[in-house]
Specification:
The chain is of the alpha+beta class. Helices cover 32% and strands 25% of the residues. The radius of gyration is 23 Å and the shape is flat. The mean pLDDT is 92.
Length: 235
């Protein structure tokens, strides 16, 4: 039985509260990279299961670790000394109906495709290492996919929280990050990377924005050019 209960909140809307702090991590931020890659892994696992078996099989794909590499930045272009490492955890169906599924190949293919599409200066073959630790799920979790029931039962508990609409501060921060990572902006300022973070702090009607925007060293030949290009971006 489904029930719905609606109650009225007496708190003032966020836009009317005196202080608001909002942060947005762009597509090149490590947290966003990890989330984006795992979402792509989820999609590719679904496609693989549907293509080979005509239906979805059990998996959990939401746990990963992005460990930093080591670089040597330099004006005119530095070098990668040690690639970053992505560790993939959680569960996936590794065999079904007598067939083995190469989970490692699916996961690596998904990660590399996401990197190619979103990070202009990261070579997924040279700059990233991959460690796939996704194992077969337990019988209790995988069983519901084998029952053939018309309505699939739940094998876990979960809760979701959401809200709408975005406040004016949230919209401003979101729009700024999307602009800085847009194709048009990157075409005009190719030296700017995708690792962007925007923080908005609103005090009553005053909004302060703090922006962290990395420059790619191959496009910067000297310290003076760095500050000159920084001023051009700010304009």
């Amino acid at each position: 039985m489904t029930s719905l209960k609606v109650s009225l909140s007496h708190r003032p809307p966020v836009d009317e509260q005196p202080i608001e702090i909002v942060e947005r991590k762009g597509i090149g931020h490590p947290d966003t990279i990890a989330d984006g890659i795992m979402e792509r892994v989820s999609l590719e696992l679904n496609r693989e299961y549907l293509r080979r078996f005509g239906g979805l099989l059990h998996y959990n794909a939401d746990k990963s670790l992005l460990a930093a590499g080591v670089t040597e930045p330099a004006f005119g272009g530095g070098r990668v000394i040690e690639p970053m490492l992505i560790v993939f955890g959680d569960r996936a169906t590794t065999s079904f109906a007598g067939e083995v599924i190469d989970i490692e190949e699916v996961v690596k293919r998904a990660a590399k495709s996401w990197i190619r599409e979103n990070l202009r200066f990261v070579d997924p073959e040279l700059h990233v290492r991959y460690q796939v630790e996704m194992k077969q799920g337990s019988a209790e979790l995988t069983d519901i996919f084998r029952r053939g029931s018309k309505v699939m039962g739940a094998n876990d508990t979960s809760a979701a929280v959401g809200y709408a609409p975005l406040s004016r501060t949230e919209m401003a921060v979101l729009d700024v990050e999307r602009f800085l990572n847009s194709r048009e902006f990157k075409k005009s300022f190719e030296e700017t990377g995708e690792d962007v973070k925007v923080m908005g702090c609103r005090y009553d009607d005053k909004l302060d924005l703090t922006i962290a925007l990395a420059f790619v060293d191959r496009f910067i030949s000297s310290e003076s050019e760095y500050f000159r290009r920084k001023e051009e971006v700010l304009e």
